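Summary for the steering committee. The consortium agreed at its last meeting that each partner would contribute one worked example illustrating the joint modelling workflow. Our contribution is presented below. We chose a case with several input lines so that the handling of multiple components could be demonstrated. No manual editing was applied between input and output; the record is shown as generated.
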Amino acid sequence: MRWFGFGFNAFGQIHVGEKLIKGECSDAAEEVKVFSPAELDCCSCCRVKTGCHIRASWSRRACLHLDGDSCVCLCGVSVKDSRGCKDASVSESHLTLAFSDRIESWDLQKEEKTPSWSMGITTESSGPSLNLPLVPGGYIATKPPFYRSLSPHLKAKSLALSAEHAVLLSASGAVYTWGLGSHGQLGHGGLTPEEEPRAVEALWGMPMSCVATGGWHSVCISDGGDLYVWGWNESGQLGLPSRGLRKALQQQRSQQAGATCQDARTSPAEESQEGEKNEEVFISIQAFPALLDITPSCEIRTVSCGSRHTAAVTTTGDLYTWGWGDYGQLGHQTLISSDEPQRVEFFSEQHMRVVDVVCGAWNTFAAVVKEEVA
Amino acid sequence: MAMLWSRISAALPLNEEQFPLQFNDKVESSVLETLKRSRHQLYSNTTSASRMLNAQIILDFSWEKLNTGTWRHVDKEWRRVYSYGCLFKVAALCREEPSADEVLQALKTCDMGLLMGAAIMDNILQVIVQILQSEVRESTKEEDESEHAQVKRIKIECPHVPVIKEELAVPRIKCPSLESFNTNYLLPLKPVILEGIIDHWPALNEHPWSIEYLRSVAGCRTVPVEVGTRYTDEEWSQTLLTVNGFIDRYILNKDEAAVGYLAQHQLFDQIPELKEDIRLPDYCCLGDGDEDDITVNAWFGPGGTVSPLHQDPQQNFLAQVIGSKYIRLYSPEDTDKLYPHQSQLLHNTSQVEVENPDTERFPEFAKAPYLECVLQPGEVLFIPVQHWHYIRSLELSFSVSFWWS
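What follows is the complete predicted structure of the assembly.
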């Protein structure tokens, strides 16, 4: 299995170019915005990149290696104190490591010998495997207090967190949300916050298998492979028609910014379609889950969200992306945002089958295997 | 144009070492690194594209922070970072022989920093916006003089002026003493129209406000505009336009079906020249609050703008400068007949359309007593705290409101 990345690379999260020194910011445009998928650099701790799990924040990319001597690498360099960890998550300021007997949070901005926060845990051997940010009895939040308890009634199976909200998937396939809701990201039909986990009633009766959160949007996949989206659509991250996006694209075209690449697929005729577009319904906030038809025949296998974009993998091995694209994070070899899911042709053209996707705030990482010749 | 960069760089610190970048630890080290990168680029030789790119990273990141949580709770540090992003972007735009369009972009960027950011480096964005404005004025002077003959005339609006019933008219008084205003109106919280108290305003004398004057003082400045008939409508939205753009589209162009309103905006903080044309009413000193806590808002729009019936948590002096407005006032004692929205967001707003009430849904409304008036230029309406008010402009209108306690 190989990993490819595209999008924001100012900190060398995807690859380290010639001009880029590890850990420093680059100012060369091609270095900062990787708009064509690039294979990730090998981690120093392993020569064969199997069993690598990617975790990403805005400026960092962490690789979690679970085979043999498990450890975490940050941008290719092994983290000494991570040996033996079972799971990891990375934020802009902290690296959180889950071990079988404890959780540790390391402050990435300081060079310290001890974690800035830790707590002991007891994992039952029969219980669910560690699944950050979920920990026995609760979860690890992005800001203090780090440990928050969760009611056992929820039977939490997986949890997606953004700065403002949380989406929880229970063992029975029910979805609960809480946090701020001013952009409809809680899916209860309004804009009000929820302090406690509240079931998303619109999805009741339809078991879900996967949940993900972006900065202001939420996404989940049903057992049957359907994708549901809700929240803010200002850059088309819901895959629904976005007025803000169309306006921004018009402005971009009139300014003719030097750094913007022309998308070969965008026909010039689109600009003057004002008459037709007037009839179209634009959605800036979707406060209830909406079913998103990505491609007529395919089921969605997994999904991940950046702050303002979404990436989904089908069971047939295709990767679709949509939303904000200014940094190349959609992988369509342009810097153009899109409110319509589009397949990342790079992988299909190279006969690569995408099997997983993980998004950082402004970039996307896809795991691929070679397509088997039928 | 080469002058422009030398004027801007004269406003900036001499070198990298003297350029302050201090933030609390909410701003992560990776972001600080990016800021330092831009600072370094400001004083070294690199490409315009690199500078723009790095400034944009700062803007995009801080924009996300500004949109996280409620505006009130956004850490001021992120607003400062946003302002720095604007500063670096402006520097990148103006460094190398900027085109006229790039100068306008730089102006808009300064305004974005002033509107959404927080003051940095002794309000340097305000300093730079003045430099950019004078640059734009110099280069458009020649064009202006030749186009003078083609000045578009505003379609003369003959407003349908509602007839005010005498028994329902808001009382009027000319230049009351502080004491008599306090005793007769402020303490008992009674609305009144004050006549003669803004006669001395430059806006009504030396610099009479008009479309042409506003264009010359603030034409290329970017301001927030509300689009839609009233803020309780589904179609209502907010957008950013230059003052010229707003005037062209929503004031002069009567083909535009939608109503645009430059409403509830602290324009006078953004454009100091306009602040000098108005004065704080003396009567504000009768309150408990600080002069610095008085919020001054501009309300500029065509005929037909509507502020639905609502109440505010402070005393209000509404000064009319251009045009006229129909205003209706209801006492807070009659709130039970005014059907306020239940939601937290709109609980200060009535559900009733005052000039076209749904008598089936809101039967009690007709029984609520009210006062009404047509406010004319030169007049100031005192709206006591929590007093319900409904306002419709009858023609092109510019009002200035003072919220005080």
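The radius of gyration of chain A is 20 Å. The longest helix of chain A spans residues 243-255.
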